[in-house]
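note to self: dont lose this again. the chain is below, predicted strucutre after it. 600 aa total, dont forget to put it in the shared folder this time
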Amino acid sequence: MFILKNSSSISQIARLRSPKFRQSGSNCTLSFWYYNYGQSVGAAELQLLVDGLKQPTVLWRTYYNEGNQWLKAVIQLGRLPHPFQFSLDKISLGFYEGVSAIDDIRFENCALPLPALSCEGPNHFWCRDTKACIDSLLVCDLVDDCGDGSDEDSCDPDLQCNFENGLCNWEQDVKDDFDWIRIQGPTPTVNTGPLKDHTTGTARGHYLYLESSEPHQFQDKAVLLSPLFSPSGNGTCVFRFHYHMFGKEVYKLSVFQRTGSNTKGWLLWYKFGNQKNRWIRQTLFISSSKPFQILVKGTVGDGFTGDIGLDDMSFLGCALYNGNLPTISTTTSGTSVPATLPMNNCTEKEFVCRASGHCIQMIQKCDFRPDCSDKSDESACVMEVCDFEDKDLCGWHQPALEQMSGNYSIHITNTFQWQLGRGANLYPEQEQHCPLTDHTTCTEEGWYLFADSSNGEFGHTADIATPVISLTGPRCKIIFWNHMNGSTIGSLEVLYKSRNKTSKLWTQSGSQGPQWNRAEVFLGIRSNFQVIFRAKRGVSYMGDVAVDDITFEDCSPLLISDKPCTSEEFMCANKYCIPKNNLCDFVNDCADNSDESPSI
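---
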């Protein structure tokens, strides 16, 4: 079907109407191919006309010449329970040079679900009237998946919100940069944001959106807070929501879970970049041994075509908590300290073993050798091996962030810093300069540590450090794997810090290719020091530095044996025993250099 101009009147409209449809199912989509070519070809739009609604809903628009080509449009219709039809309007302003055409109109997945003869098992729900068998995760999610509304009957209104009557029991965070906005119809900026809500699929329905236009700036954040929930078993609490991320400059949407009222919590999920003009459903399974809260954070991109939408947020298998979350306090090393110690006779210069009250020398704490029976002398230290799985930092911490935030670990914005990441959470533009898989598991689900160069500016540095290590042995070394790929990669350094003196042990700069590379750094005998990984940002975001599988090898200090040295061992001047193979090898294995003496 194409348009042929046959009048010279100003502001002509050519209108094509569809047949009327009775209803559509929850997964219904409409697609067609269109052609809009010519110097003054003008705009066109597709409208949805629903019985009982005076206001039409705009589903699709094209504003200008799109070149000598056929292009495909895909429109999400979703569940429309009332009769409806479409109107395709072509507008010409006075003169018209060009051709507009439409072809291959297709409806997909628009029928209601088919009835089933049986519907057994805890993971299924049998619809009351249509007799369809649907997944139980679709129950009470604010979407009529059955086609008769039975999957949305008897739902707790406190566990769901479609924003038709406000924010329900969700709240705007007062510590973020700005607020989410409740709106009907399209957002104010063209070529970004939804044209309609998800609940009703029309311009009558409400949803929340993040406005990316001025005065908001790159990486400004808007945070939405859920009500509080009681502890949940292993994934029995389910959070469902629908998000819309359309626009060339859409940046990031992320979900966090927290158990402390003053913390940012830990990342459950995030999505970067343009996800096309559609509402997308996301399901998250939540476990917690403590009362918790969910935070939904939207982050502004580098431009005005970065609007993000939220709608139909619901919880299943969760219980509201009638109380408050505690305030979490931390020490400067990020580890909690027991309130009381066992009965002991230790001096201030000794460490108290937490289980027994036994006293050991302070230099035996954090030396990679457990001297207490309960290993408490090594509990607040860096772990000997760290693969970052289970999102564990293994004692590594970021001193600069702690100085900026004090006891509050939230709202440090626009800072170049280390964070946990994995390939499964990358958006397409990141795949060229961030690891697709970790080194430990070689999968997209494995975790690694990376310095996110989408924050900060050229030359900014990010440090992550160990707690103070008391003592190491003569053959101590750090082995780690690093990933440095991207056109504007900066550098990675391994530093040694003792008191106020910092020295460089290892450095690497520039792109090293799209693979994990092994590195080894010799430490030897050192005392009361920290190891620091320092990433330096390049000239742009196209280059993230990542590390994984950090190992401290052979780092426990020498131990004086209560037995004489064997025939295969050499007795050092300080009574340590070392293998004779270690003599005269340019390594101070004895810690007093007696194994390297010319008189041997």
